[in-house]
Amino acid sequence: MNKVTKLLTTLLFSATVAGAQTLVTVNGAAITKQDVDTELMQATQGRFNEVPAEKQAEFRKQVLKQLIAKELVYGDAKKTGILNSKEFKAEYNKLLEIAKKNIAIQVWQKRELGKVKVSDKELKDYYNKNKEEFKVKESVHARHILVKEEADAKKIISELKSLKGDKLKKKFMALAKTKSTGPSGPQGGDLGFFVKGQMVPAFNEKVFSMKVGTVTKAPVKTQFGYHIIYLEEKKPANVRTFKDAKAVIEQRLKLEKFKVSIQAKMKELNKKAKIK
After folding, report:
1. 191 with 255, same domain?
2. Distance from C-alpha of 15 to C-alpha of 23, rounded to nearest angstrom
3. What is the pTM of this model?
4. I need a surface site. Which of 3, 102, 112, 194 has the fewest CB within 10 A?
5. 63 in Cβ contact with 40 (< 8 Å)
6. How many CA atoms lie within 13 Å of 269's alpha carbon, on the beta-carbon side?
7. What DSSP string runs through 88-123?
8. Count of domains in the chain?
9. How open is the CA angle 270-272-276, to the nearest 5 degrees?
10. Residue 83: Cβ within 10 Å count
11. Considering the domain boundaries, does residue 95 fall inside one?
12. Closest CA to 133 of 255, 237, 239
């Protein structure tokens, strides 16, 4: 590992641990963690979090190197008078004109959208006619401990057998942190809420048949290994209330009306314009 790579690794690690925003300064210009994050999200089209964890650190180092290089080149461009050249000014003015037009269009669209109104009656009518849209499936909040061997799973179950309530939950979480081979282990085996069909069949079938606050009496075998499951919470299937769905409905109806109003507006503008 060369000196530059060591420095970049140290800077990125320090920012993550200490929460520092500025990673490095280049001739007085700060490069922040936000700058790196923005570049990464743009490069991956907003999917950086889907990049394998072992590759994320390397990508961050590469992007930081690129940002440092940009600052060095920009600094040299300023020193050598590029910013005062006719070529630079011509290209700069072109980009300014493009940016001005794009920003004006965005503000215009925002104002036009702001003119669109949706009445409470329209919102309620939509809700009453489309309740199927607002059905929420039954969901559960579960934790699990994943191990490779059935004997290990049975041993963990025996450790939990005599416990109930908070003692059972706390012990389960502690065992998940030390025994589970699954990625949720460090979080006490927490899988969050999920609906039927999200988990593999054997796991899915078992967890939805359990009672809240209980642990599986026998290991559940899947292609991943043997699971011990703790059911923390269960939410029955229901229909979202009008109050909960109102904002979503309003946005949908506003956009529908907006499309219609924009079509009418464009026809009007076309009639008035001199298009040859």
Report:
1. no
2. 7
3. 0.55
4. 3
5. yes
6. 6
7. HHHHHHHHHHHHHHHHHHHHHHHHHHHH----HHHH
8. 3
9. 65
10. 12
11. no
12. 239
* Burial class for 191, CB neighbours closer than 10 Å (0-12, 13-18, 19+): buried
Spatial contact of 140 and 208, defined as CB atoms under 8 Å apart: yes
Shared-domain flag, residues 244 and 124: yes
Domain that holds residue 27: 3-84
In a domain, 174, yes or no: yes
CATH of the domain at 215: 3.10.50.40
For residue 246, count other CB atoms closer than 10 A to its CB. Answer: 16
Q: Which two tokens stand for residue 204?
A: 């899915």
What phi and psi values does residue 114 have, to the nearest 5 degrees?
Answer: -65, -25
Rounded to an integer, what distance in angstroms lies between the CA atom of residue 271 and that of residue 268? 5
Token pair recorded at residue 35? 């700058």
The amino acid at residue 97 is E
Q: Which pair of tokens denotes residue 261? A: 């109003």
Pair (260, 201) in one structural domain: no
User: Is 24 in contact with 73 (CB distance < 8 Å)?
Assistant: no
Instruction: Give the pair of three-digit tokens for residue 179.
Output: 């025994």
Going residue by residue through the chain, which has 276 residues, state the pLDDT in tens, using 9 for 90 and above: 555 455 554 444 444 444 448 888 998 889 998 898 888 888 888 888 777 777 888 888 898 999 999 999 999 999 999 999 999 999 999 999 999 999 999 999 999 999 999 999 999 999 999 999 999 999 999 999 999 999 999 999 999 999 999 999 999 999 999 999 999 999 999 999 999 989 999 999 999 999 999 999 999 999 999 999 999 999 999 999 999 999 999 999 999 999 999 999 999 999 999 888
